[in-house]
């Protein structure tokens, strides 16, 4: 399978496992899971056939580990805009986490902190390099440092997704270090 096909399948999975499962007639369970056979049947019925081997390769080879297969079920690791409970336990974060964004968002972030927007959680990276790549998807990246240790001490909870993305409900501006 060529790289373009892998990217198309990954984007298709993101759309239907994170945001619009109803568009292809699937229903995610409370924790975001759907049977693999149900997903493959629905994809084929809606003009996007995917083989089990292709699906497994996209899941295994995705550099961001966006999807998880557990037995006969699959789900997105995080990033849902549909109502799901990933059932992730609270976890002790490293002292600092990072968030990649772009300059046009800085006024709102300085005033309100980091908000989940249309997602369930704010996504935080474990290192500056990952946050830089995330921010670069929308323009020239700006990397913010999150004082996760201070947030945790103040009672905020963090969760760690299966692919290493740290999740928080909100990051108040007082816990952010802004560049410059």
TrEMBL record:
InterPro entries assigned to the protein according to its UniProt record, in alphabetical order: Ptrans_KptA/Tpt1, RNA_2'-PTrans_C, RNA_2'-PTrans_KptA, RNA_2'-PTrans_N
Gene source species: Streptosporangium carneum
Gene name per UniProt: kptA
The UniProt record lists the keyword Transferase: yes
Pfam families per UniProt: PTS_2-RNA
Domain of life: Bacteria
Family: Belongs to the KptA/TPT1 family.
Any one GO MF annotation of this record: NAD+ poly-ADP-ribosyltransferase activity
Protein name per Swiss-Prot or TrEMBL: Probable RNA 2'-phosphotransferase
Enzyme class: transferase
One GO biological process term: tRNA splicing, via endonucleolytic cleavage and ligation
Job of this protein: Removes the 2'-phosphate from RNA via an intermediate in which the phosphate is ADP-ribosylated by NAD followed by a presumed transesterification to release the RNA and generate ADP-ribose 1''-2''-cyclic phosphate (APPR>P). May function as an ADP-ribosylase.
Keyword set, alphabetical order: NAD, Transferase
NCBIfam families named among the record's database cross-references: PRK00819.1-4 (NF002014)
EC number(s) reported in the record: 2.7.1.-
